[in-house]
Amino acid sequence: MAAAVALRNQGITDILIVEREKQLGGILRQCIHDGFGLKRFGQTLSGPEYSQRFIDEAEQMQIETLTNATVIDLSEEKIVTIATRDGLRQIQARAVILAMGCRERTRGALAIPGTRPSGIYNAGVAQSYINLFNTMVGREVIIMGSGDIGMIMARRMTLEGAKVKAVFEVLPYPSGLPRNIEQCLNDYGIPLYLRHSVVKIHGTERITGVTVVEVDERMQPIAGTEKEFSCDTLVLSVGLIPENELSIAAGVELDNRTKGAYVDEFCQTSVPGIFAAGNVLHVHDLVDFVSLEAEALANGAVRYLKEGTLPACDIELVASAQLGHIIPQHISGTQDFQLSMRVRKPMGRCRVIVKQGDTVLRRVTLPKAIPAEMIQFTVKADAIVSGERIEVSVNEI
Amino acid sequence: MRSERVFTCIICPNGCNITTVLEDGVVVEVKGHTCPRGEEYVRQEVLDPRRTIASTVRIEGAALPLCSVRLDRPIPKKDIFRVMEQIDGITLRAPVKIGQIVIENVCGLDSDVIVTKNMEAVE
Hints:
The complex is a heterodimer.
Chain A: H1 2-9, E1 16-18, E2 34-36, E3 45-46, H2 47-60, E4 64-66, E5 70-74, E6 79-84, E7 87-92, E8 96-98, E9 102-104, H3 107-110, E10 120-122, H4 123-131, E11 140-144, H5 148-159, E12 163-168, H6 178-185, E13 192-193, E14 196-202, E15 209-214, E16 227-230, E17 233-236, E18 240-242, H7 245-249, E19 274-276, H8 287-307, E20 315-319, E21 323-327, E22 330-331, E23 337-343, E24 350-356, E25 359-366, E26 375-379, E27 390-396
Parallel strand pairs in A: 1-4, 8-19, 10-17, 11-12, 11-17, 12-13, 20-27
Antiparallel strand pairs in A: 2-3, 5-6, 6-7, 9-18, 14-15, 15-16, 20-22, 21-23, 23-26, 24-25, 24-27
Helix pairs in contact in A: 1-8, 4-5, 5-6
Chain B: E1 2-8, E2 17-23, E3 26-31, H1 36-47, E4 50-51, E5 54-60, E6 66-71, E7 75-76, H2 80-88, E8 91-93, E9 101-103, E10 113-115
Parallel strand pairs in B: 5-8
Antiparallel strand pairs in B: 1-2, 2-3, 4-7, 5-6, 6-10, 9-10
């Protein structure tokens, strides 16, 4: 929606938003907590309020939307196949913006041994039951994984009368933001155990409990540390995976680290005219950054529509081992560009250095860096010295 | 008596660690904040911790059975569950609009419960 509004503002009139759900707004419809919009609107809003601002703008601009409609195929030639209530539709697009978001990693992906009872939910699923459909998922809850949605659901379930016994995180540091540990766990006396993993699920029809174990530096269970916890509900908050089935169908090249498309500074994928922004490109911690990324993308998309092509992006960007990923992965060198990245492990005071050969293009000092928080800054085009590849690294200082 | 307390600021995603120095229950120094809102937060937090909460209320005549709501101003932490009980007693009738007041001055705490989702009436 942010991209559509920005495109419309730049004079593009023939825009169609295709949405699988009945209503626009995506995951924000069920994110009823506040804390959205501080960066984008300068005030704190709940998810539905945040998305309504874009829905209102899109409506005022009379941007065409198609809800209850699933895009089932996207081709390299940008033919979009949509399953709608009125039958199958095929549309030849001149440009496509991918904004499918993420899926949650599931129990299956973790291969937790044990039985397969009911009462095991992904955090986002539990959130939709509780916040949209008035269905409480359980009364005695264990949470596995310290992702933000898991912590937010720990608070939500506590407010709705459940007993959330603990959050277990296999890593030595939390996956979510410090403010959520504070306001969702500490406020309600919910303990967070780091270096702990659920290794077995008990129960035949309904889950009755889990076995939890401490893990060592290599994330291997430490023998003799097994503990059993009774519960009727296990909530998993163990990561998000960009939803790229359509991207793959269109021949879009994916980056193994982000699990999203390989893009240039225009957010254009390896297929000319197909762009990607938001969680489908890389997992964001803040919706504000999703909207800002999509709005920035509009510039490139408009230029592509007007000129039929975008400048060649032959300058490769590579991230050092301490960085989980970097966006974009290649640039043209003709304009300033925004760099996004995450550190793999928490760091104290550190310095991010962007280098081309021996020339430092940008140096950013941070008081701390954590995997839960994306790092973003701009690199100036006039700093770029050649067509050589650019290296981005971070080191504690 | 002099004491120090460290807080994780919840105002924005930066989550700064902010230290307050208290002397006889009075804040004499705030360290580690990177913005004025952070300082304001810990000064409040150390004396009277407050939160805004979000929840849902039942709604009739809408496409979904629930409508999301939140407080428009923070309330004392200790009153959260009292307010949740009040919220639990509400049933709305569609249509509703963002910002519509559901409970005025809930529990006398100088905060309103407001609707955070536009919901149309459906047949």
